[in-house]
Amino acid sequence: MITRRTALMGAAFVAAAPAIAVQKASADSESMTPVGAKVDLANMPRRKVELVAPPFVHAHEQVSSQPPAIVEFEMTIIEKEVEVDDDGTMMQGMTFDGSIPGPLMVVHEGDYVELTLINPPENLMQHNIDFHAATGGLGGGALTLVNPGEKTVLRFKATRPGTFVYHCAPGGPMIPWHVVSGMSGAIMILPRDGLKNEKNEPVSYDKVYYIGENDFYIPKDENGDYMRFEDAGSSYGDTVEVMNGLIPTHVVFNGKAGALTGDNALKSKVGETVLIVHSQANRDTRPHLIGGHGDLVWETGKFNNPPERDLETWFIRGGSAGAALYTFRQPGVYAYVNHNLIEAVNLGATAHVVVEGEWDNDLMAQVVAPTAYGDMHISKKALP
Ligand SMILES: [Cu+2]
């Protein structure tokens, strides 16, 4: 078994390699584009955004009424033990801002994301952040490696509209371990003039649900019981053995089986349009809304591509975030699942949306309620 110390030393060793190949970002207040156009960052408007824990998202405009700005965010990395199911199974988690997944960040194309990333002294490990939305420097990973007790500020330009994953990537085997311990989230970069349907006509949403899906790999002891560890370092050796078998013990939405069901179910009403942003930083998944559809689905999450219409199930590639727009038409409890149903029902990947409103008999009606067989029995001739 690998001790905490070996794990930490491993982290420091593998993390050192990629950083040297990357030029550090200049802190200059002016930057130059490749074609020589100066961008006056010193006089660019700034806006500070307080992040909100998923499945919710901070207030934001869909159609931007402002010119491009530097949008300031702050995230604190928190290593902490988390409960991953209702049976009390515990995992040494690693989080962006204390939640699994980390918060959904929203900006517009052409804005600059300026993130202050804090690694408090109470943590044991080095961390960083790789934004799939960013260009260069390992997505920012090479410029943001912070030891416990350090903080760093990364700025990147949001050049491509869409939903994108961010995750910790401190080097070598630390990368998958930190990601499956909870260190991922998503950013949504909206077109400045908002979302468009397949005909390039404007569309909007009433609310966003941010679903972050995680696969967890919790070791079991000789009695078949889930093991519990005193800290992340001491969990590494046993956890990596389960990880390398590629069979997760839990596949969950928002950090825990049941995190978005029962009292924590999402809420909506008939006529309301929701945008479901779904990220999976490590493993493929296939969202499906039972009893509903994806009216418009950006399966790959990238808003320069026209959305697909009327989907039943869509596919989120591991390492990406997709977006689905849906207007509820019937009341009831909808299950939003990973339609590998073993993962949905037995391993945890189910959320519920409780929708209020008037039932539409035109869309669905119970013509005959379940009743005794009576005259409706099957003719013996029809049987083989
Ligand atoms: Cu990390």
Quick recap:
This protein has helices at residues 4-19, 174-180, 232-244, 341-346; strands spanning 30-32, 38-40, 46-48, 70-83, 90-96, 104-108, 112-119, 130-131, 150-157, 162-167, 184-190, 195-196, 202-203, 207-216, 250-253, 266-269, 273-280, 287-290, 294-298, 308-311, 320-327, 332-338, 350-356. It has 384 residues and is mostly beta strands. The strands form 6 sheets. Strands 15-14-17-21-19-20 form a 6-stranded mixed β-sheet. Strands 3, 4, 5, 7 and 9 form a 5-stranded mixed β-sheet that branches. It has a 4-stranded mixed β-sheet with strand order 6-11-10-8.
CATH third-tier fold name of the largest domain: Immunoglobulin-like
> Ligands bound here?
copper (II) ion
Main sheet overview: 6 strands, mixed
Distance between the termini: 60 Å
* SSE sequence, one letter per element: HEEEEEEEEEEHEEEEHEEEEEEEEHE
Outline, from the CA principal axes?
A: flat
The CATH homologous superfamily of the largest domain is named: Cupredoxins -  blue copper proteins
| CATH top level class name of the largest domain | Mainly Beta
Q: Kindly give the count of domains.
A: 2
Helix proportion range = 10-25%
- Bin the strand percentage: 25-35%
Number of helices in the DSSP assignment: 4
Widest sheet, order of strands: 15-14-17-21-19-20
CATH architecture term of the largest domain: Sandwich
What would you call the structural class? mainly beta
